[in-house]
Amino acid sequence: MTATTIELRQPTGTAATPPPDRRRWWALAVLALAQFLVVLDASIVNIAIPSIGTDLGLSPAALTWVITAYVLPFGSLLLLGGRLADRHGHRRLFLAGIAGFTAASVIAGLAPTGEVLLVARALQGASAALLAPASLALVTRLFTTESDRAKALGIWGAVAGIGSAAGVLLGGVLTAAFGWQAVFFVNVPVGILVLATIPVLVRADAATARGRLDLPGAALVTSALVALVSALSAAEPFGFGHPLVLGLLAASAVLFAALVVVERRSDDPLVPVALFANRGVLAGNLVMLLVGAAMVALFFALSVYLQDAMGFDALTAGLSQLPLAGALVVAAGAVAPAITRFGLRPVLAASLVVVAGGLGWLAAAPVDADFALHLLAPTVLIGLGLGGAFVSTTQLAVQGVAGGEAGAAGGLVNTSLQIGGAVGMATLPAIGAAITTALLDGGADAAAASVTGFSAVFAGAGALALAAAAITLLLRDRR
Q: In this protein, which residues make up the domain named Major facilitator superfamily (MFS) profile (predicted)?
């Protein structure tokens, strides 16, 4: 069976296609700002967590849910959000998502108890699941020419990496200056700005007339992802061999298998099977899954490494990641011309190899590491690679997708990023911790054992980047 490529279709009619809207670049800036908030909120609370626990009386176990309560509904509801955007209009769902996200941020900042905060975080995640795929669909609708779309997707795709890199820095600055509530209140003026400007900058798109919404598919994909994330969360305290973890993994596998069966039989599936016939969509999502796993584990391990091994305080550790974020921005801006000249897949593969090289360099840092040589230089290299990788992967994952499926494709690639991050957080740091423990039990020096564990995390992330590069080059459309 040959793969089919779904091409971007423009509406037909007697009238000529209108010229591109001059306001589209301003619209892109606002859409990218909203996407920045969505990604930022997965990491900005990390440094604020100790203060939250003290003020709201949350136990260490409950504090982990300040992050999980956001990521879990975000990742599990993205596909449903994408399909709802395709059915009811991308602008309408985007505005609903940003309104819900802003309101939930106010509730989180004012939360008097831990329970209220966790509910607000869940509402933030659910709202993010509406606006993230809708925003990507709006970008693909606003920019129709190949060159403009490449530039636009470059800007939009770079936001994910920049938001993750900026989370630690902004979280430290805001918490130190204004308290933990500020990491939530910072979303409010931005959300109001987006709500006020998008109706002016982006024309409403018509809702797609369809039959029944695929509620069985939505229930199965949500349940499968909840079971998977729960299993990964339980693996850290109990180990992967624990009956609870094994049972949740088995349940997730069964639910995913049932999802495939249901989606094949559905008249209007939540995840159209035809999307995966497009090798670009398939490859883009596999790459995003691996990049997400490598990136989330990297930023977590790097933040802890800088504080534990290098002795930096939280704010200094965040500031030390500014060169990485700057390199990411530079690469994201330069990658569009490179894609035009050399092709999408070669640029993506080269970017991933650069990421792997930087991670390998970082993994080789000794106990008495020099910041400039062993940390600054490799993290700048990683930033350059991530900038190119995020832009190229996002473009690959939506390339050739029909306008009516743009929301589903956007939800799918965002889901891959979130689930990849969950997998990376559950596996790579656990491997590093196990290595450190084994070395300590064998009588090794504490500092050397700790650095060796961090090196294992960085090396594992590099291996994921190389695997993603291989998928990019091998998983091509059959001619």
A: 27-479
Q: Which two tokens stand for residue 274?
A: 């035809």
**What does the longest C-alpha to C-alpha distance in the chain come to?**
79
Q: Are 179 and 51 in contact (CB under 8 A)?
A: yes
CA distance 191 to 172: 21
What pLDDT digit, counting tens, does each position of 335-388 carry? 878 888 888 899 999 999 999 999 999 999 888 888 888 889 999 999 999 988
The per-residue DSSP string of 283-305 comes to: HHHHHHHHHHHHHHHHHHHHHHH
Dihedral angle computed from the Cα positions of residues 304, 306, 310 and 315, in that order, rounded to the nearest 10 degrees: -110
Residue 366: count of CB within 10 angstroms of its CB: 10
- Each as own residue / partner, the long-range contacts of residues 175-181 (CB below 8 Å, 24 or more positions apart, any chain) are 175/47, 175/48, 175/51, 176/314, 176/315, 179/51, 180/45, 180/48, 180/51, 180/52, 180/55, 181/109, 181/110
- Domains of the chain in sequence order: 24-203+268-474 (1.20.1250.20), 214-267 (no CATH)
Confidence of residue 405 (pLDDT cuts 50, 70, 90): low
Angle between helices 215-238 and 406-441 (to 10 degrees): 10
